[in-house]
């Protein structure tokens, strides 16, 4: 049974066992941020069912981060790379949303590995899904603005553990055709690959290709050749990754 003890949060104290929204019982704090806190929760009366995440935001004179997240996610159609919003509303004096519960982020996954790096196969898988996620976001009319390893999480359940989810929409804005921010989002993917392929890549600049694995050269060149105002050819980027991944598998069979 949960103890009714206050849990630190940016808004009013949240108590374990407290009910948020229609029937979501707070279990424990997952993380505390500047604008909101995330708690694990389950549906009241169903303690053995799946976990959900409750994000609770403090009131602010600024635009609501959670309202922005809700707007962005609801604008995205047919993508498996964004956590589903189950419910939203007001709790006490704060905005809240209930979403799927997600697993660790890409950075945490890398820190569990030898030398804190990831295999080529893992990076290929990540890059492919990251392109899919950004294609859906850009097609909905937004740019992310904070593409980094902390903002890509894997699923929590057996069914979703192989899927990457893009989070954190605090810097997400509508784009216009006079900026180059879509390209910056895509360059963020290359920076992540660079960081987690080798320890040296962690300290390289985003525009450097020095520490990229050779298998990513064609992919990186296609991204660096993107021009302002042009719509990125996401299909071509995905095809490059498919081709390279097949070559890697064939090499493994030969070896």
Automatic annotation (TrEMBL):
UniProt superkingdom: Eukaryota
Pfam families on file: PK_Tyr_Ser-Thr
Cross-referenced InterPro entries: CK1_Ser-Thr_kinase (IPR050235), Kinase-like_dom_sf (IPR011009), Prot_kinase_dom (IPR000719), Ser-Thr/Tyr_kinase_cat_dom (IPR001245)
GO function terms (MF aspect): ATP binding; protein kinase activity
Domain Protein kinase residues, every copy: 24-255
Protein name stated in the entry: Protein kinase domain-containing protein
Organism: Streblomastix strix
